[in-house]
Amino acid sequence: MNYEERGSCNKVKLGIARCLLGESVRYDGSQKLDRYLRDILGQYVEWVPVCPEVECGMSIPREAVRLVGDLDSPRLVGRSSGKDWTAQMYDWGQKRLDQLEREDICGYVFRFGSPSNGMNRVKVYNDGNRVRHDGIGMWARMVMERFPGLPFEDDGRLHDPALRENFISRVFTLKRWRDAMSDGFTAGALVEFHTRHKMLIMAHNVQIYRAMGKIVAKAGTELPELLFAEYFEMLFKGLTYKLTVKKHINVLMHAFGYFKKDLSADEKQEMLELLDQFSKGLIPLIASITLLNHYVRKYSKDYLAKQYYLNPYPAELMLRNHV
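Now predict its structure.
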């Protein structure tokens, strides 16, 4: 069963730096188009584009700006003129954050290195013109402080296949969580969500999955606001743990166990050979997942068919072709 067939076809909303969609809004009138984000991921998400500089009143073209002063609360100033844009950016930003909250975004893609849009490793100049390289862009900081539970990445980090896969997986999981809870925080909704995400969470961190199970067991006996908030916090903590070949194989072997009475000797051997090749880096993850999905359908394994680990996002994104 593919992703859309399971009722998750409503597009996810994601914030993004406008220049990454090809809009000529940078200080020199250029853009930083990322074709994967616009042309491939853009088919399955609804972008909410933001350019802090332009939207707060700066022109195109314009003087470049930089961060100056204290690392934790730097000022945004013109490189040559020294004009201070900090207050204007902040005042505009508060209103724009309110709009984003109403948009119900499920994540944000920032622009690497930008003094407004960079999520990390941004240059910050002190009064002696010495440079630090561990700052956060002014707008990016505002977004991350307002929405601490969202997945965030920048376009530079998304060139890494593993980071890209993890970010998009978290985005789609958050959308499913919101959809599952849209009719209210009920024990049934929590149990259903947790059951269908078992293998996905296990692939990231087995210990956290077990701890989450204890939270689910309390559903219906404790205040839902506190219980569900605790579950959500643990869910997204768990999904930030790095996936490894060993973790994937452990989960795939777990799924493989559901077929011990169904598969022929040749089918078992074929699956084991694929897992061995994957463990040696000879083939990507998608090869083993494809064969497993084939067996799920062939032998009508309804429980596995509902596991989002096997189809966590649209296959057309081709994320597991490269990990």
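The CA atoms of residues 36 and 261 lie 42 Å apart.
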